[in-house]
Amino acid sequence: MTRTVLVLSLLMTVFSSAAFAQGWAEYVNQEERFGINFPGEPERVEGTFELQSGVSYPANIYRATDSAGSYALTVVNYEGANRDAIEMILDDAVDVMRESGGEITYDEVAVYDGMETQMMQFANADQSRRFVAIIHPPQSAGLHRLYIVEGAAAAGLPIPGHFQQSLFIVDMDGERVRYSTDIEGNKFRVIPNTGGQPLLAPECAPGLPCLAYE
Asked: What is the CATH number of the domain that holds 97?
């Protein structure tokens, strides 16, 4: 079994709902501001995420399994961290995952919905494989959260990339958020009916949320 870097508390809360269909379905958590597909309703485990520096942040782990593999989303809440810690948290989390077990077969910087991301793949001695994506929304989003998606597959089965690809971040109204970067390197939220361009005026257009630059 792959060594985990999460220090879990003894408190484990399992959420159930008869309305949640068996099989893959969309799970949305407005409080944590995300949506993702799971094979059935996930359990939630409260814990902490510890960086190599020894600093720990509270984390909630949402996880589920099926016959093809296991799936987990860790939401790290770093609210209250200073600016320097925030700027380094993605790199620090990547370092932690690099030490989480298995041979690293892929480790590259990426962008997911315009957000800073690190994509990683691991191969284990038993031929099982693990797929990791670490997504850090811009500070302008006001989330103060880091999202770590992990999907594991047994030997001979494909890595569950569809799990990572189903993640989306939502705003206070439950609407999906995507970001882009202007010519000066500033992040801005992409609003569908503006053609992906920032609004010319700082005021909100009717019926649209204000753009917040990072």
From this structure: 3.40.1000
